[in-house]
Design goal:
Layout: E1 3-9, E2 16-27, E3 30-38, E4 44-52, E5 58-64, E6 69-73, E7 78-83, E8 91-95, E9 99-102, H1 106-115, E10 124-132, E11 137-153, E12 160-169, E13 175-181, E14 184-188, E15 191-196
Length: 204
């Protein structure tokens, strides 16, 4: 069960955005990721709880910030409820999308798991609903994912396979790289893996 800490920053000017303390695990029914977010000041900034089924679809999503929360799942595309903590401003939403995305590294693992592109194959297009902190307002976006290559690296606990993905934002044309080993993001724009207490889990 990997457990560790990501540091988050603005990918454009590297302004620190805080830390994400996470743990995740694979199981017979899929994958679960939970984390607590802290601001640069050290104050609690929210949480992420994401569960995928065996095909990488979001069975359950719960995001929180100090003033908003979102709960969602794959239902008629994807469906969610966004509300304030008291539940007085709840709004339901639905979109013909494949999954969710957001600032957490969990969503990069989830999208890679959902698409599973083959090395060298044409990029796979995917429609996602993004929730960006701090207000978690939904936004639908289209991306294209391609698996550039996979490399095995020797470690003390055995070979570690690192997958290098190319991700294109189809609205802006922006392109970036994501490196994932099992269920842990090693490098991505705005994300740095600072601590990892145990090796990444591998998916069957």
């Amino acid at each position: 069960m990997p457990r560790g800490r990501y540091s988050l920053h603005d990918p454009h000017d590297r302004t620190p955005l805080g830390d994400e303390h996470f743990q995740c695990a694979t199981g017979p029914s899929g994958w679960r990721y939970v984390s607590q977010l802290t601001a640069p000041s050290g104050d609690r900034a929210g949480s992420v709880d994401l569960t995928l089924d065996g095909l990488g679809r979001p069975l359950r999503l719960e995001l929180t910030t100090p003033h908003w929360q979102v709960r969602g799942a794959a239902l008629d595309g994807v469906t969610w409820v966004r509300a304030d903590p008291a539940g007085e401003q709840a709004q339901e939403g639905n979109a013909p999308a494949h999954a969710f995305t957001g600032a957490s590294p969990a969503f990069l693992v989830a999208t890679a798991r959902l698409l599973r592109p083959a090395p060298g194959a044409p990029a796979t297009r995917v429609r996602l609903v993004a929730f960006a902190p701090p207000v978690l307002a939904p936004r639908t976006l289209d991306q294209a994912w391609a698996l550039v290559d996979s490399e095995a690296h020797a470690t003390d606990s055995g070979p570690l396979t690192v997958d290098h993905y190319r991700v294109d934002d189809l609205e802006t044309g922006e392109r970036h790289s994501v490196h994932i080993a099992g269920d842990v993001v090693l490098a991505a724009p705005g994300i740095e893996l600072e601590d990892l207490e145990s090796p990444p889990s591998t998916f069957d």
